[in-house]
Amino acid sequence: MPPFHLSGTSRALYRVFIAPTLPISSRTLQPSLFIPSSSRFLPQLQHRTKTYKKKDTARHALSDYYVFDAAIDAPVIHFIDETGNRHPFMPKDHALRHLDPKTHHLLQVTPGSRDSFDKPDPSNPPTCRIISKLDLRVRHKKKMDIASKAAKIASGGEKKQLELNWAIGENDLKHRLGKLREMLEGGKKVEVLLAPKRKGRSASSEECEAVLEKIREVVGGCKGSGETKEPEGKLGGLMTLVIQGKRVEKEKKTEE
């Protein structure tokens, strides 16, 4: 049946299921022509839109920390070649001819000056040098590692764990408390895990209180250290103490 003889519903179904499967030439036929019977049973073709995702975030992050290649907006630069020789006031386009863009970047080392219109000052252009892409990524990774370590120090450092049991012997307790003091004076955050012995006798409540008191004596003896929150758990069972230390700078001995 020709499409113009169909009802409203049938015409809509024709547009959705039949028309997309027909060749373009068939779609432009006059309405008076009949639809080929074989095309009525052709499956509907689904077209998927291809999307592109940013896969290498580290690669894109380089441009957030460094200025290189096309991002250098000065037409003239002070150029340092791979051998370390300096070439003042070289056109940037000429400098780019000295490198392979597949393996190297032209990296801006110093920004130079800007004029009152925020344009590059030709009298003091930026200084740029050639650097391999691999070396730049290594430099970027080191920079990120240093920043990460600095953030850890600022936030109290990496968390350490120290395990004790309530029925611990005197000598063993003394040794563990010494390690606790060392970590706290190093500015570490320490998670002290207290638990009953798996085998052997159970500690009395007095012994448990004594162990807890000795731990807090060590904390109190480390200037600037303290528990960051209330203990979790119960005395004699499983208990967790979170203690933040403060780095102690050792005084240098002066010779008289």
Helix content: 25-40%
What Rg is obtained from the alpha carbons, in whole angstroms? Answer: 37 Å
Helix and strand composition category: alpha+beta
Low-confidence stretches: 28-41, 49-59
Q: What is the first-to-last residue Cα distance?
A: 113 Å
**Secondary structure tally: strands:** 9
- Kindly provide the name of the CATH class of the largest domain: Alpha Beta
Strand content is: 15-25%
Work out the helix count.
7
Give me the CATH architecture of the largest domain, please: 2-Layer Sandwich
Largest sheet: 5 strands, mixed
Number of domains: 3
The coarse silhouette is flat
Family: Belongs to the IF-3 family.
GO biological process, one term: ribosome disassembly
GO cellular component, one term: mitochondrion
InterPro entries: T_IF-3_C_sf, T_IF-3_N_sf, Translation_initiation_fac_3
